[in-house]
Recover the amino acids of this structure.
């Protein structure tokens, strides 16, 4: 354990590369999986649905109203199904699902704008599925703003002042983390890397004992560290390939921005990959065959999906779930990716998450080396 | 594990018939007697014990021993697989390690080269402590596993190259080239090892564990499932290595291999029942043999097998070897037949062949822990 022979480490490394090259199915899976998941989560599990049925309660009409409604229509979030009269009819439509939204234009709306009374448009949303309407609600501000701009350039130029001439009140239970594919896709990177990196390492190592080759391997003077490093490093490179594939498709298909520091990203994902490989190594010391290794890996992936903040907003989870979540590597990497890709973060901004990841890493690696046997016991 | 070919099914090497005593008590008694004898020869520090067997190489001082272990014990769960085993392998010897399936041969060999940690006992391999200096042992030992355990998805050359790197050999390429040349696989070097036949796999495995020129070879049933011609070639190689001073410990089920060994150890249920120089083994068992030839051997053979006190009837071509540990009874049977002029009887010295058959045919697979009769 103390002295590492670079020659033996390279030997394991080269062998691992050759085996990876010959195992076409696994290799295909490593590249195919990120793409499949990206498409699945990005498209099929659509958290940003469009063309939601909308009814209008029209108590006034005029150029501003028309401009607002036109803006809503062109946003493609809202699909106007007709007119309702009265609060009750609107509520009923929301309840029975005829409409996801009721937009209420108050009486004397146009007049009140001219008088500078700042009237309110009411947007009632069916909040029973908050994620379904989240995107539409989020888009509402932009729609109103552009409607105002349009109208103001025309007849109402006079009232152009500091405060907007009218506003929209949204009635709904607001989901604190507004979701959209731009949000879910970066999170997906954390999930994909956890899944494939852990699984592949665990299986690659267990395969060695399952096929009996471990016996010859450890009858040579090779040290555990040499085996561990030599087996892990090729998969770090696989992780790189996955990230490149992922970023490419995220950009092309979902137009996900990358606003933050590339350097911070590189540092972050390297650490995360290594944590997962160490976890895979740990799993391999617990599993007796490849099937068990696979099952154990899948078992670790569930909490990563459910408790990392990928599926549900972390802040909204109960205390115990947050405690578990904090021990999951994906939780911290998820934050790193979102901060960097969406919020333009740099190294300083992710220092907290990096520290947590390093801690988890130290614990896992220590456990793995402790469990690893240089014998067949 | 249970799919290892048993010696009994291998018609080529065993004489046509062999018989064992029916009562297990007889075996048990013989076995415990044997054990006492071998114990006296076993303890490494008891040099000078007077009643030790002839050709007493194993009792020489430690440096002449490639391996010695004492009280070696291994448990899996609550099952004792190797039970207080003593063994001494002199340097340069070919040491045959016999025992039924599941008797603990593989487990013993694994403990000797540091692949398994014993639950008890001590020992040295090439002068290094098997408990503390596994690393040094591994540098100098070539271990050929019972099941082919090189990489099937690597080519022949890649496998040899990998092993050469593991031992950090200098002139790696030249040595691998030479190994391929000697193997006769130079032109097939880029074939996947998994595609090789059993015999070729075995030769490749041997070449792989010889690359670093080990001082000690541990061969675990190296020729199981390999055709007779390949086995003979294999043993030519073993003898050549032995002449160069390499110590060879080899476990086997085959008589033609056992008779080529300088020393024999026989274990059952994890216990050493007998060990010593090959020539002394029949005496240690206390086996006596008469040679019979003449007409109508088949009928005689059938008759003798039903005769009380005759423990073994083995046929070698046109002669029968009739053996028993009860010398007086055997002589009586012989004289009875001679009186009736049935067959031509001559007393002969019991050889390793008879001893081997005696040991191996009486043994049943040792996988169950309940039947302790043989070793108790
Ligand atoms: N890793 C293991 N775990 C549990 N039992 C084992 C293990 N290895 C061997 N055994 C058991 O120990 C006994 C001796 O096995 P082994 O040493 O392989 O015998 P042999 O090589 O003489 O056929 C067998 O009953 C076998 O089932
Ligand atoms: Mg065995």
């Amino acid at each position: 354990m103390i002295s590492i022979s670079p020659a033996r480490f390279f030997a394991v490394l080269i062998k691992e590369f050759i085996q990876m090259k010959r195992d076409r199915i696994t290799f295909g899976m490593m590249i195919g999986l990120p793409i499949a998941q990206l498409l699945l989560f990005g498209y099929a599990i659509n958290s940003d649905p469009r063309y939601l049925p909308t009814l209008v309660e029209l108590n006034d009409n005029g150029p501003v109203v028309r401009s607002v409604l036109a803006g809503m229509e062109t946003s493609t979030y809202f699909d106007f199904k007709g007119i309702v009269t009265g609060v009750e009819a609107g509520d009923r439509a929301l309840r029975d699902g005829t409409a996801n939204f009721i937009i209420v234009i108050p009486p004397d709306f146009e007049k009140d704008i001219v008088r500078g009374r700042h009237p309110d448009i009411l947007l009632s949303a069916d909040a029973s599925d908050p994620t379904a309407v989240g995107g539409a609600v989020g888009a509402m501000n932009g729609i109103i703003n552009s409607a105002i701009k349009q109208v103001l350039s025309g007849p109402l130029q006079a009232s152009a002042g500091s405060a907007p001439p009218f506003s929209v009140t949204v009635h709904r239970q607001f989901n604190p983390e507004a979701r959209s594919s731009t949000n879910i896709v970066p999170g997906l990177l954390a999930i994909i890397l956890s899944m494939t990196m852990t699984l592949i390492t665990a299986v690659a190592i267990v395969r060695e004992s399952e096929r009996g080759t471990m016996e010859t391997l450890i009858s040579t003077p090779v040290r555990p560290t040499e085996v561990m490093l030599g087996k892990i490093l090729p998969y770090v490179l696989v992780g790189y390939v996955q990230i490149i594939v992922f970023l490419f498709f995220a950009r092309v298909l979902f137009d996900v921005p990358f606003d933050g520091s590339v350097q911070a990203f590189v540092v972050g994902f390297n650490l995360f990959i290594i944590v997962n490989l160490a976890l895979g190594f740990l799993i391999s010391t617990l599993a007796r065959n490849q099937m068990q290794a696979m099952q154990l890996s899948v078992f670790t992936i569930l909490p990563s999906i459910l408790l990392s903040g990928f599926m549900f907003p972390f802040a909204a989870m109960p205390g115990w779930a947050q405690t578990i979540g904090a021990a999951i590597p994906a939780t911290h990497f998820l934050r790193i990716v979102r901060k960097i890709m969406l919020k333009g973060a740099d190294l300083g901004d992710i220092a907290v998450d990096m520290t947590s990841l390093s801690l988890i890493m130290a614990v896992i690696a220590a456990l793995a080396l402790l469990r690893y046997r240089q014998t067949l016991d | 594990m249970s799919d290892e070919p048993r010696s009994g099914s291998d018609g080529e090497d065993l004489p046509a018939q062999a018989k064992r005593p029916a009562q297990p008590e007889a075996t048990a008694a013989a076995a415990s007697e044997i054990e006492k004898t071998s114990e006296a020869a076993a303890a490494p520090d008891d040099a000078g014990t007077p009643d030790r067997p002839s050709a007493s190489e194993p009792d020489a001082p430690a440096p002449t021993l490639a391996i010695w272990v004492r009280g070696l014990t291994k448990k899996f769960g609550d099952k004792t697989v190797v039970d207080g085993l003593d063994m001494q392998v002199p340097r340069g010897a070919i040491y045959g390690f016999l025992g039924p399936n599941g008797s603990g041969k593989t487990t013993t060999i694994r403990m000797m080269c540091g692949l398994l940690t014993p639950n008890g006992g001590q020992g040295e391999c090439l002068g290094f402590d098997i408990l503390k200096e596994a690393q040094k042992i591994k540098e100098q030992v070539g271990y050929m596993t019972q099941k082919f355990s090189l990489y099937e998805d690597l080519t022949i050359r890649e496998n040899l190259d990998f092993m050469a790197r593991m031992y950090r050999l200098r002139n790696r390429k030249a040595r691998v080239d030479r190994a391929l040349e000697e193997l006769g696989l130079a032109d097939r070097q880029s074939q996947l090892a998994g595609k090789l036949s059993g015999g070729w796999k075995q030769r490749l495995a041997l070449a792989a564990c010889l690359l670093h020129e080990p001082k000690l070879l541990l061969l675990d049933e190296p020729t199981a499932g390999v055709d007779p011609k390949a086995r003979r070639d294999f043993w030519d190689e073993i003898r050549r290595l032995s002449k160069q001073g390499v110590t060879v410990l080899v476990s086997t089920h085959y008589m033609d291999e056992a008779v080529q060994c300088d020393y024999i150890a026989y274990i059952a249920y994890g216990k050493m029942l007998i060990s010593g120089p090959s020539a002394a083994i029949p005496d240690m068992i206390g086996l006596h043999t008469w040679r019979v030839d003449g007409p109508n051997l088949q009928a005689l053979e059938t008759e003798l097998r039903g005769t009380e006190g005759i423990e073994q009837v083995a046929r070698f071509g046109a002669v029968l070897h009739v053996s028993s540990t009860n010398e007086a009874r055997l002589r009586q049977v012989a004289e009875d037949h001679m009186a009736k002029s049935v067959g031509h009887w001559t007393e002969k010295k019991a050889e390793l062949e008879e001893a081997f058959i005696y040991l191996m045919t009486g043994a049943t697979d040792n996988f169950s822990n309940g039947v302790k009769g043989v070793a108790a």
